[in-house]
């Protein structure tokens, strides 16, 4: 059976997808009996250099030509407005679609998914999370028998590279970011990555597949790594923790936590070992227990691998008399819970004199926050290079506490005359393994 | 749509599967629209205690009743003879089958797969490798666009637990095995696990799915961990390696290596961090690069999760007018290559006197085996507790060499009058990450 695939957007991932479809068409046909052919590839600029030469017969600048000529339309333009119009138009014309556009789907996917459902068409978005890691399929099919409980992800290669550099090379955030930019891992404007938005888009989509609900994007708590101080990375390391930008989707019955923030995880946790630009997703289901999926989270070829797995799945369903849908809606009335319950790492700048700790401890106690340990002052001062100074860092690890209590306590502590500047607050996840 | 599932064999995995199908039927229906119901569960002994109570209306002792009443027959009896008859009979009667029986499929699957193909039926065997890890699906579908190059697996929880104990607790193989048996991780007769057969069955099936050929089982090179000495685990650790029982399926064009043996892998390799009873599979494809899949490799509930993912996939295909097959045959004329090419760790017992190393090095050189390093004698003697003794261990790390050259060199070295007893030979895989 021959299936015609059209691609709109021939950037890094688009070019990789063309390369894969042309180079491995025979392997795919051998494996599945399906002959995939490229109908047309649209891009507005064919003059820019590409890693792989797209045959001139396939090129067009008119996306409508792609929709017209294909059974499956692959959107790889990125951005929100045009991509959305394109996907809706393709669906309207009865074409299945595949996209890697997490930004669009997470913030504005409702309308696209609704249209697909209405038309009995499929929307593949494996490539939108975790590059080549087949995590959407694993959640949707491999773990189909499970009630998914928790999803923890290192979903952004740029930030993971930066944090790995800080941890292993003892460099500041700024230096690590500059290195990432030099290597092409970070954009000139890196805010989508380093401020956590990209991870937040991805965890929204993982929660959609795992829990059966596309939560409003504005409900995701997002905190990036821009203000991370090397000192905290090092103090954490000394405590047996590795700092990661962790994306978390947790449920307790029908209460769901969706959050992205710098997180200390135990260094012997498999997620802690995921370094550089690699991504990993840990899924916990009621039967399977903990499983982890690991690989390159971005890049032309890995992402093309994911795009093509969607194409093949959709191609298999074409000509079947059973309509298939990948979208499911859970009947549980989920509620977003923002009052997270976790351990905290706190660092305050305080004068080096008796009674300071007591004052802070009093406020914490007032809010039922119990202290697990206080780091030895001499050691912290030494690591901070602030021995013998009048203002020194005070580091406290708490037991589990509620986010709202913590926020209130911190506000009150900040008002204590002994506390200088803004405290550092980093959540600790002990269960993420 | 309702699909009837029958189960034969209600041991640990069978019981877990019944529990999952009864407890999570609603979740599965919500996700997929498919209503799975259990028709019958057969076991020859209903008196033994089980973790989960199978409703008496579902119980039978007659496997034929299961075949008769089901759309999908799940074989969970294990062993070879009866399981094979059961699967062939079910297929003959037009039923799709699901099995966790790696032993049967790897040694004797040809006939079963042939029958399934002939009848246009599906054989699900996700549960046969890696417990709950959806690795078969990932290889078959998630990475469908790739030419799979290499598969490295830690596929046996029992041996991985034993090696983890040796590495982390500094105990001997015998002590570690005893602990595994006490915890129920190892059978009273542990030979299937510790001699590498279970891992060999599993890598045969992974190669089948990844490469498209069911290689004759006797072509797999198998070496277990029974003779592993704690000293080598510790010396390896000191060199930056972790010892694992690694299952390897590698290809170079159409030459395939299939092997299971104790293997040193760099300790910063993600596979090295897979400890205790966990399993992991690292797959390398031409587009996706390296991906890794990790989870519990055994146990009632994780394995049930895998069984059910096959059931759901098959159920989706029932009533479709397109016949689906999971089996593919590559047209490449694969050849098994037993002349592996890898680095080696060698340990000899030799007299502590000048000239000994020269003699051994001469033989290695004769076979084009080049020495990468020789471990410092004092250190090795100290770790072995053999300081000042007349016979001391000599440890050599080689560069990459051919297996056959190595075997010949070792035979010759063993004949040197200076070498006592049997040398220790452990392969080193640097690329497995």
TrEMBL record, chains A, B:
N-terminal signal peptide: none
InterPro entries (alphabetical): ACT-like_dom_sf, ACT_dom, Asp/hSer_DH_NAD-bd, HDH, HDH_cat, HDH_CS, NAD(P)-bd_dom_sf
CDD domains per UniProt: ACT_HSDH-Hom
Pathway: Amino-acid biosynthesis; L-methionine biosynthesis via de novo pathway; L-homoserine from L-aspartate: step 3/3; Amino-acid biosynthesis; L-threonine biosynthesis; L-threonine from L-aspartate: step 3/5
Active site annotation, chain numbering: 202
Catalytic reactions on record: L-homoserine + NADP(+) = L-aspartate 4-semialdehyde + NADPH + H(+)
UniProt binding sites for NADPH: 102
The keyword Protein biosynthesis is annotated on this UniProt entry: no
Origin superkingdom: Bacteria
UniProt keyword list: Amino-acid biosynthesis, Methionine biosynthesis, NADP, Oxidoreductase, Threonine biosynthesis
Entry binding sites for NADP(+): 8-15
One Gene Ontology term from the biological process aspect of the record: methionine biosynthetic process
EC number, UniProt record: 1.1.1.3
Enzyme class: oxidoreductase
Record has Lipid biosynthesis as a keyword: no
Residues that coordinate or bind L-homoserine: 187
Sequence ranges assigned to domain ACT in this UniProt record: 345-427
Any one GO molecular function term: NADP binding
Transmembrane stretches, start-end: none
Family the entry assigns: Belongs to the homoserine dehydrogenase family.
Protein known as: Homoserine dehydrogenase
Organism: Thermocrinis ruber
